[in-house]
């Protein structure tokens, strides 16, 4: 608006050695906690195993082998399951950053242009997250996924232990796809990210509409590929933990987790930058819209959660209901309900009013609920199928997210410091700076 | 901005006509700085920042939305509880017929909440903006529905001196013309 003339005063984020140290300390503290946690688990496990063997020698031998088998996988499995949980969770932030950039291009949305670089910086985490995820999948795969273990047995029809369902799914659920398909999908996403980033940086230097138009076309193509490939990604990484079970809305559910958490992370990073004196131009209007997104996608998540739960609960078909039977009764029951409260009811009620969405403090409280809540959400998705009742929240579970957070913060800050904070020649940058949703 | 519920029928108004929303916005700011009370602005399309410039308070729309939504939520629950638990319990797929059937009520409660919110707000919109049948729209100048933007003042509240000052202010900020309007039931003097 010519009336409200605004000069975009360029800023550059400085990755000071102090903030480098903070994120490295986070990483180190997290690592130490997880190592202590692993050692504890290992000791407990060997102790209990001794106890177990002395006890079972007096009983029958076949129950003995069964017992030690289920027990022997305990602590390594717990480590791999946690690595899978955290690498997947933080990878979702990176993917979410890329998705947010592409979404704003194809929706022709201008309000978030000022915070576009934050989303771009988040997507710089994708390759690192991919490496960590692949470590969990390749080395822990046969423990986490029982279909990987099954594949190694090479059973054919008629043999003892032959599983018709797993054999029928082996066209998709096979280790070749797990080891090569998953990284291929993520590398394609990262290539798109690199192209969009390069176009955006060249736009900063040269200006003009060519880069913007090109980005729209690339984003549109990416979006079609992304929604299919993200489904496949969620199926093989998450849903195949319970390989006999399936849910058709599972990938939408994962997408919901991805979107609501990454919007929250974008809001948190923006708040952090503002508290450090950067991004003066980012007004409460932008926080208002981020808050609306958080609010809306809390509801979306709950909607999809209900859609998945309700149909299975109502139909009560044996093969489907096993998934909720484990979670709704027994060990996971409290977590199951906490999950619903912390991810839906609490942020829903906190973020309902307009002032709450514009106030960084309430946004911070609701956002913390969402971030902790969706970690717990993934915990409830992963653990029943892997660890079962022997899972728990110990030092390993607390330490590993801290370590991942340290790594993620380091990567994001490093990437932020590599480019201008505002994409100043983006055609919508003034719209974003003078953005006003009205009274 | 399109039309507020202040009736023009009982008023004598003086209004400036503009062909550009930036000029209207600068007029609003200049006029308010001098202490004039704006009756209303009439624009054929929504003008950004106009509501903040005019100093309009936030609408209570969201409170109304919450109340109608909560009504729908309560009605939906009441309907199902009354029918399925008290009046005529039915065994559907072996599901319980007590409060434990709550999950199966979610879709209907969800829909009735949305339905009541939408209907409540639509109804409120029509009432608040006086858009019923047979109600005359607030039109000062027919071109306010086309390509002209108006800013109106209550001329009964102006005296001879500041009305001249107002005219100068409006002209300075780019008014094409300044006209008078007198409503159907206004005091004619």
Main attributes of the structure:
heterodimer, A: 439 residues, mainly alpha, 17 helices, B: 189 residues, alpha+beta, Alpha-Beta Plaits, 5 helices, elongated
Please describe what this structure looks like:
The complex is a heterodimer of chains A (439) and B (189). Chain A is an all-alpha fold. Chain A has one domain. Chain A is built from 17 helices and no strands. In chain A, 41% of the residues are buried. Chain B has 189 residues and is an alpha+beta fold. In chain B, 45% of the residues lie in helices and 12% in strands. Chain B is built from 5 helices and 4 strands. Chain B has a 4-stranded antiparallel β-sheet. Chain B is elongated. At the A-B interface, α11 of A face α1 and α4 of B.
Q: Nutshell version of this structure?
A:
Chain A is mainly α and 439 residues long. Chain A has 17 helices and no strands.
Question: How are the SSEs placed, and which strands pair?
Answer:
The complex is a heterodimer of chains A (439) and B (189).
Chain A: H1 17-56, H2 61-72, H3 74-106, H4 116-123, H5 126-144, H6 146-153, H7 164-168, H8 175-206, H9 210-237, H10 250-275, H11 284-315, H12 318-328, H13 333-350, H14 354-358, H15 360-386, H16 395-417, H17 429-433
Chain B: E1 12-18, H1 21-33, E2 40-42, H2 50-54, H3 61-87, H4 102-128, E3 149-154, H5 160-172, E4 177-182
Helix pairs in contact in B: 3-4
Major pleated sheet of chain B: 4 strands, antiparallel
Q: State the domain count of chain B.
A: 2
- Indicate the multimeric state: heterodimer
Number of DSSP helices of chain B?
5
User: How many DSSP H or I helices of chain A?
Assistant: 17
| Strand fraction of chain B | 5-15%
What general outline of chain A do the C-alpha atoms trace?
Answer: globular
Assign the CATH class of the largest domain in chain B.
Alpha Beta
Order of strands, main sheet of chain B, comes to: 2-3-1-4
Global Rg of chain B: 25 Å
Q: In angstroms, what separates the terminal alpha carbons of chain A? A: 18 Å
- Cα-atom radius of gyration of chain A: 24 Å
The gross shape of chain B turns out to be elongated
* Helix percent band of chain A: over 70%
Structural class of chain B: alpha+beta
Note the run of SSEs of chain A as H and E: HHHHHHHHHHHHHHHHH
Number of strand segments of chain A = 0
Number of strands of chain B: 4
Largest interface, with counts of residues having CB < 8 Å to the other chain, equals: A-B, 17 and 20 residues
The largest sheet of chain A is: none
């Amino acid at each position: 608006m010519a009336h409200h003339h605004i000069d975009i005063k360029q800023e550059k984020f400085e990755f000071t050695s102090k903030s480098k140290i903070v994120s490295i300390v986070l990483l180190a503290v997290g690592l130490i906690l997880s190592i202590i946690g692993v050692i504890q688990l290992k000791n407990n496990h060997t102790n209990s195993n001794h106890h177990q063997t002395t006890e079972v020698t007096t009983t029958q031998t076949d129950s003995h082998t069964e017992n030690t088998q289920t027990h022997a996988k305990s602590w390594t499995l717990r480590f791999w399951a946690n690595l899978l949980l955290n690498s997947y969770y933080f990878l979702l932030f990176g993917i979410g950053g890329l998705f947010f950039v592409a979404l704003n291009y194809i929706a022709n949305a201008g309000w978030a242009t000022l915070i576009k670089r934050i989303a771009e910086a988040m997507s710089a985490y994708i390759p690192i997250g991919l490496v960590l995820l692949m470590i969990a999948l390749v080395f822990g795969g046969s423990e986490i996924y029982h279909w990987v273990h099954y594949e190694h047995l090479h059973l054919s029809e008629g043999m003892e232990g032959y599983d018709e369902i797993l054999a029928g799914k082996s066209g998709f659920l096979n280790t070749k796809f797990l080891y090569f398909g998953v990284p291929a999908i993520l590398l394609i996403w990262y290539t798109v990210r690199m192209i969009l980033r390069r176009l955006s940086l060249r736009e900063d230097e040269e200006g003009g509409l060519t880069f913007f138009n090109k980005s729209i076309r690339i984003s549109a193509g990416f979006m079609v590929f992304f929604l299919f490939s993200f489904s496949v990604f969620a199926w093989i990484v998450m849903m195949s933990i319970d390989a006999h079970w399936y849910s058709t809305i599972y990938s939408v559910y994962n997408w919901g987790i991805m979107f609501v958490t990454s919007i929250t992370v974008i809001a948190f990073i923006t708040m952090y930058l503002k508290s450090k004196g950067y991004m003066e131009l980012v007004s409460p209007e932008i926080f208002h819209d981020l808050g609306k997104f958080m609010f809306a996608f809390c509801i979306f998540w709950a909607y999809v959660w209900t859609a998945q739960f309700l149909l299975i609960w109502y139909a009560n078909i044996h093969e489907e209901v096993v998934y909720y039977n484990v979670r709704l009764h027994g060990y996971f029951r409290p977590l199951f309900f906490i999950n619903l409260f912390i991810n839906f009811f609490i942020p829903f009620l906190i973020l309902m009013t307009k002032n709450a969405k514009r106030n960084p403090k309430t946004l911070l409280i609701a956002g913390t609920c969402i971030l902790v809540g969706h970690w717990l959400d993934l915990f409830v998705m992963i653990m029943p199928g892997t660890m079962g009742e022997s899972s728990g929240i110990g030092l390993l579970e607390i330490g590993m997210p801290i370590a991942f957070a340290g790594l993620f913060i380091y990567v994001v800050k490093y990437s932020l410091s590599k480019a201008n904070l505002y994409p100043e020649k983006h055609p919508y940058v003034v719209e974003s700076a003078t953005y006003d949703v009205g009274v | 901005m399109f039309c507020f519920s202040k009736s023009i029928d009982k008023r004598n108004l003086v209004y400036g006509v503009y062909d550009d929303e930036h000029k209207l916005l600068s007029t609003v700011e200049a006029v308010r700085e001098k202490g004039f009370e704006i009756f209303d602005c009439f624009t054929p399309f929504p003008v950004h920042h106009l509501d903040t410039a005019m100093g309009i308070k936030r609408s209570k729309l969201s409170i109304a939305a919450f109340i109608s939504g909560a009504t729908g939520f309560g009605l939906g629950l009441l309907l199902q509880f009354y029918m399925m638990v008290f009046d005529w319990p039915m065994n559907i797929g072996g599901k319980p017929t007590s409060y434990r059937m709550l999950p199966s009520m979610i879709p209907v409660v969800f829909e009735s909440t949305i339905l009541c919110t939408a209907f409540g707000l639509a109804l409120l919109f029509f009432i608040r903006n006086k858009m019923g049948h047979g109600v005359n729209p607030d039109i000062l100048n027919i071109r306010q529905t086309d390509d002209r933007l108006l800013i109106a003042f209550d001329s009964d509240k102006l005296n001879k001196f500041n009305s001249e000052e107002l005219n100068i202010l409006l002209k300075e900020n780019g008014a094409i013309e300044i006209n008078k309007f007198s409503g159907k039931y206004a005091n004619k003097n």
